Request: fold
Amino acid sequence: DARVTQTPRHKVTEMGQEVTMRCQPILGHNTVFWYRQTMMQGLELLAYFRNRAPLDDSGMPKDRFSAEMPDATLATLKIQPSEPRDSAVYFCASGLARLNEQFFGPGTRLTVL
Amino acid sequence: TQLLEQSPQFLSIQEGENLTVYCNSSSVFSSLQWYRQEPGEGPVLLVTVVTGGEVKKLKRLTFQFGDARKDSSLHITAAQPGDTGLYLCAELFFGNEKLTFGTGTRLTIIP
Reply:
């Protein structure tokens, strides 16, 4: 049963702390996306990778957010330092280029106090 | 930036009733996808529509793409509690795979 997995599922931290969220894309998928979902802004694209190379991170605050793919089985999204306004659900999705379907993970619910 | 407005924002109806939700854009869509998201989960793709006037059916769900490709609707017949969830439309830009999501319709089906 191929699924995108994300860890942790829930994270509560204090303002100023570093937060790292991890994603394991579906084996064989070559495109990985990071989204953020809030009640006010809805679902927004933060960044995406193809074949581990960043293609677009224009939706991501550059001063505190960073996204990487150390290898084909792991994508990370890091926030340093975290702020209360970063509280949201962060989704990772993976897909195959040109097949136009993204498979979403269950999300990481982040609360920054 | 294209703005995708969905209506209604919230909808609560009795099991067995029919309903329609809408997705409208300020400009022409490249193509449009509909997703359903259940609590605690990520969105799941339901359908992709590409051609103006296109109609696709998925069991009790009927998706329609406007002739001018600036709007889309999702009609559910005989709604069931399992249809409860957040319905999202999203524009897909062919060639770069980026999705821009709408504001969502939160649907509750009351048994």
